[in-house]
Design goal:
Length: 355
């Protein structure tokens, strides 16, 4: 091709908008990033020390540390909290959920990414999956190593998290959790190891999918209520009912049960032995509590399996609720929200089946 012909081709391409290279910002989805602190934003005093300070970096610093994010989405960061997730509480849950709903309601927002510590990530994600009123994608990410660690896993989790939240298949799946190349439904995910980067597992059901270098592969859909299908709303709430989790063990007494009730617990979740069982003194105390209007949920301290209704304990007779697949931590979340609607254990049992 002659030089003049080449120049004419280049001029034509430029007039039509240029060569097909990296996508422009106008072509990319707009994703809101809500940060809450955690290990993913943590810093070590020394690269050779395990200890670190959670929440040492803000949201913009986290995003700048991840290469090629600008090729996936236009990201707008907001610091909702900056804590270690061991300090997560109901007040921050409500603040985070309201900011999430408000962000997703904006016409230009395509979805949301939330950074969070791993200690209570399984609880926060389940809470958000029950109170988010949009079917736009929501993805939570964290890390097991602080931002200053050798081979920090946070940047890779953020990159994959953004890839999932911009994937069309994420729509309508409720709150998802993405760590270590795995996608989990919030309802199913459990932290299983104190330090390993592959700590998060969906024990009873398996993961929602996989994501590797931003490429997403989906597995089975969720068959429980979540997102807009949920009946729960936090719009008018400024606090949640108190629900305590009490751990069952050999020689378990009724003292902690009585103390929880005296201090205002409206519900009690028992992390029972085996299939949600406990000692006779504890069972008697909880039976009395249930008859007095405290909602009692039997779950299990075991990592997998289903706490079956009327198995070993006669739930019908005692007025208890059986947690089914939900572990004690997630049972507490659902019971808190259930108590904003009703104190009827029959109605709450139905919720545990549906959610």
């Amino acid at each position: 091709m002659k030089r003049n012909s080449i120049l004419r081709v280049i001029a034509t391409v430029v007039a039509m908008g240029g060569f097909a290279t990296a996508p422009q910002a106008a072509d990319l989805p707009n994703i809101k990033v809500l940060a809450t602190g955690g290990t993913i934003a943590g810093a070590q005093a020394s690269a050779t020390e395990y200890g670190y300070k959670s929440g040492a970096y803000d949201v913009n610093s986290l995003l700048k540390a991840v290469p090629n994010l600008d090729k996936l989405a236009v990201l707008t960061g907001e610091q909702v909290a900056n804590i270690g997730s061991q300090d997560m509480n109901d007040e921050i849950w409500l603040k985070l959920a309201k900011r999430l709903n408000a962000s997703l309601a904006e016409p230009g927002t395509s979805g949301a990414l939330i950074t969070h510590g791993t200690d209570t990530l399984e609880e926060t994600s389940y809470f958000l999956s029950l109170v988010t009123k949009s079917d736009k994608p929501v993805v939570m990410v964290g890390s097991m190593r602080p931002a200053t660690a050798t081979s920090a896993d946070g940047p890779g989790n953020i990159y994959n998290g953004v890839a999932v939240v911009t994937n069309p298949g994420a729509k309508g799946k409720g709150t998802l959790v993405v760590l270590n190349d795995t996608i989990h439904y919030a309802r199913n995910v459990v932290k299983t190891d104190t330090t390993s980067v592959q700590t998060f597992e969906s024990i009873n059901r398996g993961p929602a999918g996989l994501v590797n270098t931003g490429k997403v592969f989906w597995f089975e859909p969720m068959d429980k209520k979540l997102g807009p299908a949920s009946e729960f709303s936090i719009d008018a709430l400024d606090q949640l009912p108190r629900v305590d989790v009490i751990y069952a063990h050999a020689n378990m007494s009724a003292d902690l049960i009585d103390a929880a009730i005296r201090n205002g617990a409206k519900g009690i979740v028992v992390a029972g032995v085996g299939d949600g069982n406990m000692t006779t003194p504890a069972l008697d105390a909880l039976t009395k509590a249930a008859k007095g209007g405290v909602v009692v949920v039997r779950s299990s301290r075991l990592p997998s399996g289903i706490t079956l209704r009327n198995n070993e304990v006669n739930d019908d007779e005692k007025g208890f609720v059986a947690s089914g697949e939900l572990n004690p931590a997630k049972s507490r979340v659902l019971l808190q929200l259930a108590l904003t609607k009703t104190k009827d254990p029959v109605a709450i049992q139905k919720m545990f089946y549906e959610y």
